[in-house]
Amino acid sequence: MLNYKIISKIIGSLLWLEATLMFYCLLVAVFNHGHDVMPFIWSILIIVGAGGLFRLFGRKASTSLGRREAYFVVTVTWVLYSAFGTLPFIFDNPSMTFTDAFFETMSGFTTTGASIIDYPEKLPHGILLWRSLTQWIGGLGIVFFTIAVLPSMVGGSVKIFAAESTGPLKSKLQPRLSTSAKWIWTVYLILTVLCAFCYWLCGMSVFDAVNYSMTSTATGGFSTTSGSIAAFKSPAEDYVCIIFCFLSGVNFTLLYMSAAKLKIRQMFRNSEFRFYTLVILFFTALIMLELIARNHYTVEHAFRSSAFQVVSFITTTGLFNDDAAKWPHVTWVILAVCMFLGGCSGSTSGGIKSIRGVMILKVVRNEFKQILHPNAVLPMKIDGFNVPTAKRVTLLAFIGLYLCLALICAFIMIAAGIDNTNAITITLSSLGNVGPTLGLEIGPTMSWSILPEWIKWICSFLMLVGRLELFTVLVLFTPAFWKEN
After folding, report:
1. C or N terminus of the chain, fewer CB within 10 Å?
2. Rounded to whole angstroms, how far apart are CA atoms 180 and 193?
3. How confident is the model over 366-377, as pLDDT tens digits?
């Protein structure tokens, strides 16, 4: 049986942390004299009370955490954070349904960026900051953030990290996980501050610069206006967004090793980084040529728009500076491939991750060699590390499960009357935590508010499954997980 007391103790601590985050939004609401002051006060009181009840139930819990408890607590934490995160939205706008509020919050914490709010500029400052903050905290992981700030909260942090971290190959900076978490969050914070400063230099207000920096470095995509970055009509801001979204799509451990320890060459020797960079350059060139030839863009405009959209889609950010729905349909295919691929493992981006793309290419290469040399033993090495057979099997299982989920959910949406293009890209966008979609009913610049409520629940589930990389969530639905032994 699961150790519910230790699970309850952890959830209680995490809920108090969520209340603390909301308190900062309350201060912004008070400073701006917004009508969201009371919604935040009530939300904080409810969350603190709920956290207290969880802590009370787990007051005599042991400090040991098993593998099953780790998977359970990570999944439940993301669901509860999203459920309690709906409170400010519902209290501020009683006409908003719980489905819409949950969709918005889950989209925030998973850094998907899909929104059901048509005009975010009408929201008060506190609510806007809460939307951005959900993405910033969810960028590297709710529990991972907690390990950094509360390293002694509970034993078994390594198991929790394994359940929440992204990518098939894990790397550590320091022997202690809490120390590694602090260094990675330091890199993340520095990137966010630099991004906000650059946005401010380019003409954004302080409030907009802070919000867009959080959603850019979290590769989330929530905006303070319905026009996203395009509303500012500033090429300088476009380039700032491209640079920081690109950096946020790089493995943060690699960023730390390359920048903090002045080992820049190490970054370019990394096979995943090279793959990620070459894919962006190649796809940007293809779309750029299409825009020049068919949409008659100038060279600079074509380069900026194509680079922005490719980086936004491959890092699963979802911000936009142009309406890709008006582009040639061949560019939609390229952007859909970007949705599927995603950025690097250990970054804030979604998708299957570029490292899996590298592994697939090496598996295919080895298969061709095996045909010519049936008795050869062919190792698969990535950056000098020999990938064991178990990891290769997991890779194939992951890709197979990812495609099956995408096909099943796309089929359900098509059966519900959603057009084919939208159904496929909505599924890929939700599962890859991308945000925008491609199609006529819901374009890349539109909200998802017109979707039926039950489709929004499917999308919310896909967001959670995609953010926790399938197995962490889906293992809870297997009979073996609940067996005593």
Report:
1. C
2. 20
3. 889 888 888 888
